[in-house]
Please model this.
Amino acid sequence: TQHSRRLFTRTADCFRNYYKRLVVDGLSMNIDETLFDNIADAEGVKLAYEATIYEYGDLYDQSMILYGTNLTSNQLLFVSYAQSMCANNDINGTEKRVPEQYRVIGSVGQSETFGEVFNC
Model:
């Protein structure tokens, strides 16, 4: 619908503006080439967090420090996302994707929940 298109365009513009300002190790990225990946990453992290809370409900102690770590359950979700992005999946160097560090920094940098969970 027209409403959906306008909403998506507004969201895409927000992502473009955010990633225009994002510089990692002195490098920036081609924003328009990676726009859909950026949106998918940010929304995927948000959805994973919401699904975890929904699935475990009252059993999910969001403030409990997990044994052997100094992380809460909520923090561990974000850390596991970041670690999953550490692998270099493009063996031949032919894939036009966002470098993993941008994907992690970009997606969690826009997350209000990440800021709340890590008190930043």
About this structure: The CA atoms of residues 90 and 97 lie 9 Å apart. The chain has a mean pLDDT of 82.
